[in-house]
Structures are given as structure tokens and as C-alpha cells.
Fold this protein.
Amino acid sequence: MYGTLRASAHKGHRASRSRIARSVAIAIGITLLSPMYAANTGSINANKKITYKTYALRALNNDYHQFNCLLKLYTKESNWRPNARNGSHYGIPQGRSTYLAKVNGYKQIDWGLKYIYARHKTPCGAWQHFKKRNWH
């Protein structure tokens, strides 16, 4: 019995490592295919170039599941463009705050994540809402 438990635990560990490796590969691919932007926030070294997507992933503490939901959401909303505008909605998160029209993409992501956590609890919650109602 001990050997059976040990073998099944080993298989489960291998499966989770496989999922993590796949997620990392996807994130690296996204990062490599995205245009680079100079960061200008206090939390990131301004001398290094970082994409908005990489910034968002780091803001989510490298939670690839939540990042995947945010990736889909912001791709639909603005295609990750900080200058995107749809009526009275601005920036990457397409919020109704004129603040978003005045700040850089990194601050827009910070604002958008605060909004998501206050209203939907998680980026995946916001994505589920968006799929049902076409807004978040």
C-alpha cells in the first residue's frame, strides 16, 4: 500500500510540474512576442524594459491562472493599449475614470487590478463576468 500511495503522489507531482512548465512557457512566449515598454513606476527598476503583460503577471505574484484570465480580459477590452478609449472608458482596463487617460500603462494596470479585486475578487471572476455581460 505504501508503494501505491507513493507512486500516485509521484505521478500527481509530475503532472503539476508539467502544468507549471506549460504555464511558464506560455508566459515567456507572450513576453517575447509583446512590444517592450520602459517601466516608470516605483515598484520596478526604470532602467529595465518590461511589457505591460509582464508587469501584470508580477503584480499577480506570478499566478499564471489569474494572469491567463486577465490576459484574455484586457486583450478583449483594449488589446493592452494604454491609449485605448471607448466612449467614457479609458486605458488598458477600460475604466470610467479620467485618471486612466492621464497615467501610464503600469498605473492603469494597478488601478484595474484594484477595481477587479474590489468588484470581482479575482481576474478570473472579472473574466467570467465579462463573458456573460461583455463588460466587467
About this structure: Residues 56 and 62 are 9 Å apart (CA to CA). Residues 34-133 form one domain.
